[in-house]
Amino acid sequence: MAEKAQFEFLWDKIRDRAEQLIKPIAFETFIKSLVPVDVVNKKIVLQANTELAAKQIYKSHADKLREAIVSSEVGLSDFVIIVEGSEEYTLREESDALEEADPVVLDKRYTFDSFVVGSSNKFVYAAAKSVAEAPGENFNPLYIYGGTGLGKTHLMQAIANEIIARRPTMKVLYTTSEKFLNEYVDSLYTKKSGARDNEARFRNRYRNVDVLLIDDIQFWAGKYGVQEAFFHTFNELSSQHKQIVISSDCPAKELSTLEERLRTRFEGGLIADIQPPDPETKIAILKRKALEKKYVVPDEVLAFLVKDSDNNVRTLEGRLNTVIFASKLHEEPISLSLAATALQESINTGDQETVTPEAIVRSTCSYYSVSKEDLLGKNKRQELVRARQVCTYLMCEMLTLPLVTIGKEMGGRDHTTVIYSRDKIAELMRVNDRVAKDVNDIKSIVLKQ
Q1: CA angle, corner 359, sides to 353 and 362, nearest 5?
Q2: Which secondary-structure segment (H or E) carries 153?
Q3: How far apart (Å, rounded) are the C-alpha atoms in residues 435 and 443?
Q4: What is the dihedral of CA 60, 63, 65, 66, to 10 degrees?
Q5: What single-letter DSSP state applies at residue 60?
Q6: pTM for this prediction
Q7: Which tens digit of pLDDT belongs to each residue from 25-63?
Q8: Residue 315 class from Cβ within 10 Å (0-12 exposed, 13-18 middle, 19+ buried)?
Q9: Burial of 159 per CB tally in 10 Å (0-12, 13-18, 19+)
């Protein structure tokens, strides 16, 4: 059993995530006062003050609380509520053998229907669709590679979402290379008294699945321990004809510090690359993004937005967001002249080339009047959280860095936190003029440096 401080450490991360997911009144009333008292079978045991509070949490907030537990990536998957002196809300510890793997954490927006297909990606799209329709039978393993912001993660999660919808009894596990690495390290150095060996837990988690998808494996380069662990996982799943899908930012043969035996296994399946989108595909992507935001943007404006743009879809969406915000701010319909005015700085390639993570951090700190230590630290004051999320969003939009690298620049945050912050600000910009103004003002500051 872990020490009390360890429970509090886990609960702090979960509670911070729950605060983002649960409505403020409900969070303050029911969640904030919960006290962590134990961890049993990957469930955190939380003590409530009253049976009424426990009942309300289970009735109205259980799904969001579970989502907070899983997405906080503390190694837990569920919760139990107890109330002192209650016969109904008491701990009934289950056998450790009944422990199940964490639920799959997927973005439901990432589907095949929402993926824009063009000449640059139709081959990899068809391969991914084929795998989703017959996992373990077609193209195993499937190795997807391509540059940042071209849609690798979208396709990976689309495969997972499709399989879950078609075959709900299948065990599907999507994860990132960073999470796999962290769990591997924990399995070696973290021991829990009275429980099964953690190394066995790690093996069982990744080998007792029907479909395993791992994103961004290039980050294992030079890390031979985790490569060895995945090699044995790969062999076990492959021997049982279980589906494996892997993504990277480069072809397997270019992963020079990846073990040869892993590279040859990757090359034994299907290697499919996502090429940079052509102008027509970029326009189609922006048109879909605009419709998702409930805006109709003239074709001439869409053509202008993709002109001289890079190949990162998130950068394209950032341009679209800038124009939409300008339209709302000035209460004018979206037009070519409006778009040209709104993007007159951001389309200057010479300025973009000077943008660095340090410049974005410095500009964000100046704009919000916060210190770099607070911006990149762990303080959860609302104004700091928002500034941190905006800074993360700008790094995703203005730089062509991997998400893991951006996480490191933002104080050592993980891949999923970067994704959450990016998507949170993108959504807020659509509905909140103040947030959109903040983002565009800071972007202007960065580009003028």
Answers
A1: 170
A2: helix 152-166
A3: 12
A4: 150
A5: I
A6: 0.55
A7: 999 999 999 998 887 767 888 999 999 999 999 889 988
A8: buried
A9: buried
